[in-house]
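Recall the central idea of this unit: under ordinary conditions, the amino acid sequence of a chain determines the structure it adopts. In this exercise we apply that idea directly, starting from the sequence alone.
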Amino acid sequence: MVKSYPELIVWQKGVKLAVLVYCLSREFPREELYGLTSQMRRSAVSIPSNIAEGAGRMRTPEYRHFLGIARGSIFELQTQLVIARELGLGDGGQAGIVEELLNEVGKMISATITTLNENRSTNH
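Accordingly, the structure predicted from this sequence is:
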């Protein structure tokens, strides 16, 4: 059974990641507000939101599904960070911190999916 989502370290780190992305993107030019800024913020917010929604469904297959969506948002945000870096947007040091946490959250989500898949195969 899935823990209450606020207890999940991966959710807590996902929330911190979203906050950091908001802070990083505040420094982007105003003309990016509806472009890269908006895309990055949506991807970042999607990560803990989907973890929470999956945990709230209280069924392992649904939890696994929403973790997959969160993992997709990780890949989106990684791509958007590369684009921002290539365009010279944002503080490089702050972007590095975001990337480190993003990689950590991504590994945690992948490990959780793997564990859920292994438990599924041993329960059959």
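The chain has a mean pLDDT of 94.
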